[in-house]
Amino acid sequence: MHEDWHLIESSMAKQYGIRIRQEKHMPWSEFVSLVSGLMADTPLGQIVAIRAEKDPKAIKSFTVDQRRIYNDWRSKSAKKHLENPEKLDQQMDEISKMLALMFGKGG
């Protein structure tokens, strides 16, 4: 959320006309509701759509900036997994156990 704060601010301003820095007392629950209701045509909505794209044809047609956003997000996600090798090892163990059970080699 910290790295996307500028997108949240501009999206809230665009969609709701709310300038977050000028708000004195917005309850957290209201803030969360407003952010979760941001539409695709806001700056945050557009970035999230790029980051979440799965269609290879759409990805292939990305502009240079869209590709940079997409690749940066994927790199950060991969780096997170590498920063916590214990969690990655645990997930791999769980997958191995599930596969063993699926193919009759588990206990």
TrEMBL record:
Pfam families, per database record: Phage_Gp15
Domain of life: Bacteria
Protein name: Bacteriophage Gp15 protein
Organism for this UniProt entry: Cohnella abietis
